[in-house]
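user:
I keep going back and forth on a fold encoding question. Separate attempts, laid side by side, tell us more than any discussion would. Would you put together a sequence-and-structure record for a protein of your own picking? Write it directly below this note and I will take it from there.

assistant:
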Amino acid sequence: MNSIRIIPRLARAFPQTGRLVSRRPFLLTAIKPFSSHSALKSSPGKTQNPKGALTFPDTQKGLPEFNLADRVVLVSGGARGLGLTQAGALLEAGARVYALDQLEKPSPEFYELQSKAEKEFGTSLHYRQIDVRDEAKLHKIVQDVSEENGRLDGLIAAAGINEEIPALEYTAADFNKMMEVNVTGAFLTAQAAARQMVKFGKGGSIVMIASMSGTIANRGLICPAYNASKSAVLQLGRNLAAEWGPYGIRVNTISPGYIVTTMVEKLFVEFPERRTDWPAQNMLGRLSNPREYRGAAVFLLSDASSFMTGADLIMDGGHHAW
């Protein structure tokens, strides 16, 4: 189709001034199918196969800035849930991944992904048991992994806990535990990774999992300690980015919205109204699933985000924007 349409000149009067404003016409030209352009057929570096379709032999397939081949990445909280899902994305992008978690054994899905990493992706997935509050053991594991591979390129700090307890009933022990795991644990993991990155002198990327709850109060959800801990993660990320930027280490955070996980499904049994209330609170009218955060993990750990640090990536279906 080669027709040309001209949009007529438009004019309208602004009631405040009575002025008449006209807009220039602009052309809409229907573009021919890609392979029919003679200019492209003769362009250097491009060839035409027998069927007439163009090929590009001089270019690398895909977007190379998303390639994580040969990079070594840690994922705390990586034995299940969101951490394991993001680990899978990193493996597909070519990274060697070490999952850190306090579970004695990772979930069955972990072993499925481990087998897939070797057979399909040509890389590897490993497991190290650790409570992120155990400073000495944590630093030893991160150091061993780094020295074993001769590098450390990235970290996703996804380990965290949540409890729904009214503020009037919270004990100091419960509140402190929440802060120790979600804030102190995240800091210690980032610190351990950054020390190795500085030692090898190649920089790196650290991603800390925060939450939309770090900047809003969730309607109908009573979790003051969790929300406070995620707000602390956001501020921690910004400060680490400022301090470690000179070493070439980028630090960013991701703020997810409500995610449908096995734990959340169990919560819906106890509070069935949340299955309909929560989706109604965002602009998309639905809840997210862990797979929707895969791309964010690869983006932030790859060169695709090489000029991004000290930032928070909000992925909440527009919940914040109302």
Observations:
- Residues 1-59 have pLDDT under 50 and may be disordered.
- The longest helix spans residues 172-200.
- Residues 102 and 130 are 5 Å apart (CA to CA).
- The first strand starts at residue 4 and ends at 6.
